[in-house]
Design goal:
Layout (H helix, E strand, L loop, with lengths): L1 H19 L6 H7 L10 E7 L18 E6 L2 H11 L5 E3 L9 E7 L2 E9 L4 E5 L3 H4 L7 E2 L1 H13 L8
Antiparallel strand pairs: 1-2, 1-4, 3-7, 4-5, 5-6
């Protein structure tokens, strides 16, 4: 009986330890190192012009959309691709930033009706808050997490193209 129990424990140990190698890396690792945004399947993207109270993003920690939305626009495939090219480009980052963070532009990536990724952009301080974190951003030295001149110009043009206000004027 003891021998059977020993074999069973050995078998379960082997299965358990081999399974550990098959488990994908934790989300905290991807949060720290960043991804090519949005790094998930999505069916639509909506841009929002909102009145971000200091430090409040387009979607809060509970997954609720910010209630201060002034205007919204469902993006075309071309608009999504243009935005993703900009936001994932390392040349978009590398500038100085301020500490205010009052975002006015938010993009939410939806899979059906569920938000799966989002980004909030503050043109006043040249910063962003995204989930998941963006690799091009996390690869930039912390003291240069603001937008570069080229990145800022591309993002403000995109915001104006959407017909939104407070786009870095």
């Amino acid at each position: 009986m003891k021998l059977h129990l020993l074999f069973l424990l050995a078998f379960l140990s082997i299965v358990f330890f081999n399974r550990c190698d098959l488990v994908p890396s934790s989300s905290s690792e991807s949060k720290e190192t960043g991804v090519v945004f949005p790094n998930t399947r999505f069916t639509s993207v909506t841009a929002y012009h909102f009145e971000g109270i200091e430090g409040v993003s387009i979607i809060n920690k509970e997954g609720i959309l910010n209630p201060t939305i002034k205007k919204e626009k469902k993006l075309t495939k071309e608009e999504v691709n243009s935005f993703l090219r900009t936001i994932n480009d390392p040349k978009t980052y590398g500038g100085l930033y301020k500490e205010c963070f009052k975002p006015r532009l938010g993009l939410v990536f939806y899979n059906e009706n569920k938000a799966v990724a989002h980004i909030s952009i503050c043109f006043e301080c040249s910063q962003q808050n995204a989930f998941p974190l963006i690799k091009a951003y996390t690869d930039t030295p912390t003291d240069a997490h603001g937008y570069s001149a080229e990145g800022f110009l591309n993002l403000t043009r995109f915001c104006h193209h959407l017909g939104f206000g407070q786009c870095g004027e």
